[in-house]
Amino acid sequence: MGTAWVADAADDAWTAPGVIDAVNGVAVVPPFPRADQQIAAAVRNVLDTDPGINAANVNTNVTNGTVSLNGTVPTFYQVQRASDDAGSVAGVINVINNLTVSL
Known about the structure:
- By secondary structure, the chain is an alpha+beta fold.
- Helix content is about 35%, strand content about 20%.
């Protein structure tokens, strides 16, 4: 389980009839602790095996379960897809997406 569903939950709350404000207090707590090195390897693997992403110029760094994505990808779609992929990795608490599009 990753972080993508947290934003989806907040977005869904806004669609309920009568909602005036929604405060997202959801925190992702991994079911088991995982070393940053293990998370980094799993993130790298998911990026490298996703046929929808050219991750050759994507660098990853993991600190206390927070993944930082840096570098470039060919399209805006791949920026979001890389973030979603990283967030789907077990043990990931947060994703900081600093990817840019190489035009």
